[in-house]
Amino acid sequence: MFGFTRAQAIGFVVMLVVLIIAPFIAYPIFVMQVMCFALFAMGANLLMGYTGLLSLGQAAYFGMGGYIAGYSVQTLHLTPEVGILLGGLVGGAIGVVFGWLSIRRQTIYFAMVTLALAQLVEFFAVQDTSFTGGENGIQNIHRGRLFGALPLGHDLQMYWLVLAVFLIGFIFVHRVIHSPFGQVVKAIRENENRAISLGYKVEQYKWIIFILAAVLAGVAGAMKALVMGIATLSDVSNSTSGIVVLMVLVGGIGTVYGPLIGAAIIIAMQYYLAGFSDWVTVIQGVIFIACVLAFRRGIIGELGAKLKLSL
Amino acid sequence: MMMILGKPAPLLFGQLLLGIINGSFYAMLSLGLAIIFGLLNVINFAHGALFMVGAFVTWGLLHYLGIGFWPALIVAPVMVGAFGLLIERTLIRFTYKLDILYGLLLTFGLALVLEGIFTNAFGSSGVSYDGPNILSGTLNLGFMYLPVYRAFVVFAAIVICFGVWFTIEKTSLGALLRAATENPALVQSFGVNVPRLISLTFAGGVALAGLAGVLAAPLYSVNPGMGTSLINTVFAVVVIGGMGSIGGAILTGFGLGIIQGFTEVFYPAASSVVVFAVMAVVLLARPAGLFGRVA
Fold first, then answer.
1. How close A21 comes to chain B (CA, Å)?
2. Nearest CA in chain B to A294
3. Could you tell me how many CB contacts below 8 A there are between chain A and chain B?
4. What is the pLDDT of residues B234-244, one digit of tens each?
5. How far apart (Å, rounded) are the C-alpha atoms in residues B100 and B97?
6. For residues A156 and A167, what is the distance between their CA atoms, to the nearest angstrom?
7. Is A292 within 8 Å of B284 when comparing Cβ atoms?
8. N or C: which end of chain B has fewer CB within 10 A?
9. Which of B106, B112, B228 lies closest to A292 in CB terms?
10. How many Å apart are CA B242 and CA A100, to the nearest integer?
11. What is the model's pLDDT at position A2?
């Protein structure tokens, strides 16, 4: 079902069980944050892992998704599910424009274009204080009631919503990768010139993947804003773009479960090392270097290679 | 008061000068990036961090050792270059055989490490550095007041850019570099030690970032984030100019600084984003960049 291999199906069941038990043994906010970032990282992985495009500006869609959700729930008094949908839509809309511009260049130029465009969004977030709250961000966002009926104030109530959205996103991404469309995308990654000569319009494929990644980032940012009750400048900043790349790298580029594992590890690290403040940046940098030099397949990638399975 | 295009002349010239100064730094940094990219095929994301290190070294030389600005102009770039040599030999060289993106990711991590270490040591607000006395004060040019140090920075940047351009385009060392960029295997078969050439090129490019850092130290507040905020704009400059030519990198750098300065006069709200707007237009009209070969 959904194109899962046997091993991936077992992985899915294990993941489901863990995520259902998790809020009762771990801090629910923590697990929710992991799921939000995992969704975000799955989008980045669509670009990095399956299309071979490294974006260094994913925070633009994530951060704007958060602002949109915060603004629509707090100021416009919309219901949370509408806020999350709007977050995804706005993230996607920015992705339509930015993707249209950035797919014109490849590899490192693509990375620099995405970084520069994200910088533009960050400037906007700093300056347009009436919408984003500038340095303060949007604070004390109330989660409201799902569909105007079900309260989400309690963390466990919110948890099931986040889990549901995460699972929908997870299955959707998996379905995209294992569709004929996904096969073409992977073919472009392997040999772009050949894909062109076979008659595929590679730019359109890249563009669609770019937009999907932006939508996922927008939804993830929107949910994160509702979970934490705050949408801040740091969500739209370059360091967040770096973190999501790190999550994919640590978990395993181009793997199904890598983004989730990477997100869990990096978020856990941020929690446990919160007392060391600025050393967290140093450690993240060291992990980047270590991954590139010694550990390019990431945790899930290495595990898959050991077990000779695609995970 | 003299008016030009409906704006007071001192304001116009003041912003123009600021634009040229920003352009000087864009040019010096994108130059280093272009040189490194040409030979190593690595886009050095740590370039901004190394620029910041250059500024801190300048401050540290004075603060701890009592070594002033003029010796620092030589000492700091040498130190930053030596550090560059070290990271090229111990880290970056392992990425040459990999996909081009791994070099980017590695230097990205390196930038985080450097920035984190300096934030821990000096706090995010950083330190301030006073320039040499001889360059303090202002010149009255009649239509505007020109701070001497700023004039010096522009002058120095032009000399540096010209020097680098001359070295690469007109000397035998430069010819060797260009040849190795085109075809390293062939150059190596002629008996040139290409790996050493690569190491020294990286050190040289990084030293250029360090030198820019020295010039920046008296001008801006010396803080751990100073490189990152500048380098993001420089990347846009690189995308606009393309990394194909040294002269192109210099012209684009100064040009965009000047455009930014004028935007500050006529439409201040857009001054921080105008470079990115130019980038978008260039991407649409000339995807390979103004001076670039198709990437």
1. 35
2. B94
3. 123
4. 888 888 887 76
5. 8
6. 16
7. no
8. N
9. B106
10. 19
11. 63
Q: Which residue has the tokens 């050095």?
A: B44
Highest mean pLDDT: which range of B16-25, B35-44, B205-214: B205-214
Q: Which two tokens stand for residue B267?
A: 């439409």
Q: What CATH topology corresponds to A6-307?
A: ABC transporter involved in vitamin B12 uptake, BtuC (1.10.3470)
Query: What's the burial of A38, exposed, middle or buried (CB within 10 Å: 0-12/13-18/19+)?
Result: buried
Start-to-end Cα distance in chain A:
15
The three-class DSSP label of residue A145 is strand
Is there a contact between A105 and B239 if contact means CB atoms under 8 Å apart?
Answer: yes
Q: Which domains does chain B have, with CATH numbers?
A: 3-285 (1.10.3470)
pTM for the predicted model, two decimal places: 0.87
Share of chain A above pLDDT 90, in %: 41
Spatial CA neighbour of A243 closest among A212, A202, A217, A281: A281
Q: Which residue has the higher pLDDT, A151 or A255?
A: A255
Write the burial class of residue A286 (CB in 10 Å: 0-12 exposed, 13-18 middle, 19+ buried).
middle
- Residue B173 in contact with partner chain A when CB distance is under 8 A: no
Rounded Cα gap, residues A192 and A113, in angstroms: 20
HEC profile for chain B? CCEECCEEHHHHHHHHHHHHHHHHHHHHHHHHHHHHHHHHCCCCCCHHHHHHHHHHHHHHHHHHHCCCHHHHHHHHHHHHHHHHHHHHHHCHHHHCCCCHHHHHHHHHHHHHHHHHHHHHHHCCCCECCCCCHHHCCEEECCCCEEEHHHHHHHHHHHHHHHHHHHHHHHCHHHHHHHHHHHCHHHHHHCCCCHHHHHHHHHHHHHHHHHHHHHHHCCCCCECCCHHHHHHHHHHHHHHHHCCCCHHHHHHHHHHHHHHHHHHHHHCHHHCCCHHHHHHHHHHHHCCCCCCCCCC
Going from N- to C-terminal start, the domains of chain A cover 6-307
Which of chain B's residues have a Cβ under 8 Å away from the Cβ of A291? 105, 109
Please state the φ and ψ torsions of residue A150, each to the nearest 5 degrees. -85, 120
Amino acid identity for residue B246 in this structure: I
Is residue B281's pLDDT more than 90? no
Closest alpha carbon within chain A to B92 = A293
- Contact: A293, B106; criterion CB under 8 Å: yes
> Residue A17 is which amino acid?
V
**Between residues A204 and A75, which one has the greater pLDDT?**
A204
Best residue of A96, A119, A295 to probe chain B, by most B CBs closer than 10 Å:
A119
Q: Which residues pair with B140 in a beta bridge?
A: B145
Chain A closest-CA separation from residue B269 CA (Å): 9
ipTM of the complex: 0.85
